[in-house]
Amino acid sequence: MNSTVTEQLIDFNEKQRVFHLHNNLISYIFSIEKGGFLSHLYFGKRVRNYHGQLKNPQRDRGFSDNLPGTQDRTYSLDFLLQEYSSQGDGDFRKPAAVIRQANGSQSTFFVYRAHTISSGKPKLEGLPAAYLLDGSEAQTLTVTLEDELSHVELELMYTIYRDRPVIARSVKLTNKGTTTINVEKLASLQLDLPADRKQVISLPGAHMNERHLERENVNFGVKSFSSRRGTTSHQMNNFIALCDPNTDEFTGDVYGFSLVYSGNHKEEVEKDPYGAIRILVGINDEQFDWQVKSKQSFQTPEVLLTYSDNGFNGLSHTLHKLLRERVARGKFQYALRPILVNNWEATFMDFNEDKLKPLVAEAKQLGLEMFVLDDGWFGHRDDDRSSLGDWQVFQKKFPAGLKRFADYVHTNHLKFGLWFEPEMISIDSELYRQHPDYMLQVPGRQPSPSRDQYVLDIGREAVRENIHDQISQLLDSCPIDYIKWDMNRHLTDIYSKALPAERQGETFHRYVLGLYKLLEELTTEYPNILFEGCSGGGGRFDAGLLYYMPQSWTSDNTDAVARMQIQYGTSLAYPVSSMAAHVSVSPNQQTGRTTSLQTRGAVAMSGVFGYELDLTQLTVAEKTVVKKQVSLYKKIRPIIQYGTFIRLLDPSKGNHCAWMFVATDKSVAVVFSFKLLAEAQPDFKRLKLAGLDPQKDYQNTTSGEIFGGDELMNTGFYESIQPGDFNSQMYYFKLV
Ligand code: GLA
After folding, report:
1. Region of 533 on the Ramachandran plot (φ > 0 left; ψ -120 to 50 alpha; else beta)
2. Which part of the chain is the Glycosyl hydrolase family 36 N-terminal domain (predicted)?
């Protein structure tokens, strides 16, 4: 529901010393307590008005110390629900901030000094963040805290959107003292919640096995989810959710925490001795040490804090809209993404212009829209041991240059896409021969290879400029419509030759800032190029990268059955318009599993659709199926990419998987349902839909059957039982 522009979203009650951030959907309340400490009171469904009766209880608890200079034994930070904690202040839980001062002390006491409430949302210097289209969309509360002794100031930023259950939070530290300090930890967000039984959802995985839904009880102690790999990682995504034990896809409370960042991260969930829960989210403090000189500042990345009382689908709905509408940017933000064919699984690096041309011609015949040339077109790259860093075309494969081939693709009425891996260097490269110092490497120590490649110190300006200039020379000389920006290893040998000894702890974060700078430049200079993120599949699938690149390769695993879980998990936190999914050969190259072209198509059509196989090798019958898939996808594409996505059946919980897409006006629904293994005596199960108009009637356009929206959602319908493994069905329902 739209509110009026003038409605205040943030109140400060002077008498109670209470802040209340609210819109029609949520309330977030905290107070300034004795000693100037901020205490969290509530986050959840909207309350009209906070009357000041709810106070965090106090009590004399043994071994919980009290405020310096006071004799009140009942008041301790050790069990106060705090808004933002630090180390050494008597709160023995995990701190949000750890600051090392000139005398070596790591203790700080941050207390309230001032606050401002303003409309709009400030930009975060050098970092991706959710944005506004106009200033009236949100209001921002900035609370300034100060440590009296060191004169370090923290500005806690809270932006509440008017029409979304979302609060964007970040922290800016400013050193107002006269001596240099070191930030050892600065979380973007702390959320302390009262004692309650909760569960935490995370998205762990591995290369070719990303973002599986993991749900576990929050138990006593600290549980942390993190990456120390220099990037978001396949191994642990930087999204977590906290829910009630009975929350399911459609009902129950859930809080989401999305870190808008692409480097080392940590999400800590602590249940304290009295059952209260603390969440901390931000840059991973391990191997992090940032020097802040007098008068300088440090800005943390942003966390998008979301709330739903409609279960996980409710949360995903908020996140999908938010990431699509207020994080993704540029010309392709709402564009229908082209159906592509990528030559990677078709040829790997064994190709040349002549070998590729028939693939292009076939793609055109089958109705595809873009041809993507993957790894192996540059330097002298015939395998993955050379040429990273040399972004000039490989003459042997393209004797007349890349432009002639790009023109050929364009004359076939296809767009032309190209693969890059800009952050990497091979020892066997011109770049290494000229600039051996450009890679991350500890002086005197041999660096560790991974896939025979090394990482560029992209935090350094000279390195960035070199890569930027090479890429732009190519883009200026050859018409390119899409870039797949890959990153095929994680960071080791953390040492930047551009930094003095005392700043080496900044290398990881400077890498990410450098990457963002390079991406900001290239995406601004080439606004007509669609960028797709990739890191060995979905190794850097996060809200930070989405700000520069509206879609990402979801996984190097193209097996349809494995993809069901990967896409199901990914969809918890990320919109379908960001999830690239391709049909590849069967048996699958990663798992050896055999699946039908129909099932492979159905899974891939549930994302940003494409093919990744040798189209010329398809039989006539298969080509007919592909043509049908392509034309079907063109029809359903707006609903798939920009409609409402709803998860129905979780493939990790049984023998079925199902999800659906509903047009924004509820006039059309597309449902995909999958059965995993064949059963001799299958259940007669009904599939129940969601998100339809209960008052209207819908027709299954294949069978002609008519159902009420309420019938489809409440009574459901029986699916026909297909023989064999890994079957799929698609239903298209249209308003009558
Ligand atoms: C990564 C990507 C693949 C492919 C290869 C090329 O693994 O995820 O899709 O581009 O690199 O080397």
Report:
1. beta
2. 36-292
